[in-house]
Amino acid sequence: MSKEIKDNEVIIDDFNSLLKVLNNFIYPSNYESEDILDYEHIGSVNSPMIFRGHREESYKLESTLERHIRKVFPKLELNKDIFKIICDDYLYHCKKELKGRIKESYILANENDVWAYGQHYGLKTPLLDWTRSFLIALYFAFENPISKSKYRVVYQLNAFLSIPGVIVEPEFSIGARIISQRGVFTKKLSDELESINDYFANSDAAEVIKNHRPLIKYKIKSSLRRDIMNFLFSLNIDCYAIYPDLQGAIKNCHIQLDNICNLGKEIGFVHDY
Questions:
Q1: Which of 79, 106, 170, 195 is most buried, judged by most C-beta within 10 A?
Q2: Within 13 Å and on the Cβ side, how many CA atoms surround 53?
Q3: DSSP assignment letter at 32
Q4: Any residues with CB less than 8 A from the CB of 1 and at least 6 apart, and which?
Q5: If 0-12 CB within 10 Å is exposed, 13-18 middle and 19+ buried, where does residue 12 land?
Q6: pLDDT tens, 24-39?
Q7: Alpha-carbon distance 154 to 19, whole Å?
């Protein structure tokens, strides 16, 4: 069963507990019973929170650029000053490469717009993808059938109480995918994000703020994948909704392949050695 949110971690071991978390903390409705989930209310809520799903509990809240730097320099004590030096030099070269190759040349005048545009096309950037929907983050956490972790994770970040300058929203329309995923970005090193609760606890802010936990980690049992994916599909949260292009169709084919293989195991014509 899940526990109340008293610290920054919530453990969810069964599907009913997940529904209660959705109803009580993520999408609270006017229903008195915590066993009733208001599906219409879920679709209409614009949460002040942002969310991110991880299929492995060990994954850090690090951008593709941070991950690359740590891989190249495994012994480097990466801090924000060193990271900024690398980002500034890298940004200069990225702008040179993009100049004359994109129609929206005005994008090059804004650093975060350059990163957001590049991220959309697979560029390693200092931005980390988030979504305004817990359910979409839940989809990303459970989309892949394979996980080495007992628990998959959905992070929740209070966008109003985070460190100033954390949230990045591009000033132009990147494409249908980020709209479908209700996407936003953060732009901080993983160590800064993961210690954000300590930042507030040790601040000079009012006591009510100091006791708040801007970052909450929902640990959801990996074995719940089938129930969770069926639940999300019933809400039309599937590959076609998340990826409104050819990639969505391809990902849906892979999910069907996974279903075929699982059925093969159940009826006995495929053995899991």
A1: 170
A2: 21
A3: S
A4: 13, 14, 17
A5: buried
A6: 878 876 655 555 566 5
A7: 14
Kindly write down the DSSP assignment for every residue of 193-215, as one continuous string.
HHTHHHHHHTSSS-HHHHT--SE
Take residue 136 and report the two structure tokens written for it: 């979409």
CA-wise closest residue to 138 among 237, 248, 45? 237
Contact criterion met (CB below 8 Å) for 169 and 184: yes
57-66, 218-227, 233-242, 260-269, range with the lowest pLDDT:
260-269
Closest-CA residue to 63 (of 166, 172, 174)? 166
Q: Spell 60-69 as b/e; 16+ CB within 10 A means b.
A: ebbbbbbeeb
User: 100-145 pLDDT, tens per residue?
Assistant: 888 888 889 989 989 988 888 889 999 999 998 899 999 999 998 8
The Cα–Cα gap between 75 and 98 comes to 32
The pTM (predicted TM-score) of the whole model is 0.82
- Average pLDDT of the chain is 82
Count of other CB atoms within 10 angstroms of residue 23? 20
Encoded tokens for 197 = 């609760």
Place of tokens 């606890």: 201
Nearest Cα neighbor of 7 from 221, 208, 161, 214 is 214
pLDDT value, residue 153 = 98
Helices (H), the chain: 15-21, 39-44, 64-72, 80-98, 111-120, 134-142, 176-180, 190-194, 196-201, 207-210, 225-234, 239-242, 246-267
- What gap in Å lies between CA 63 and CA 176, rounded to an integer? 22
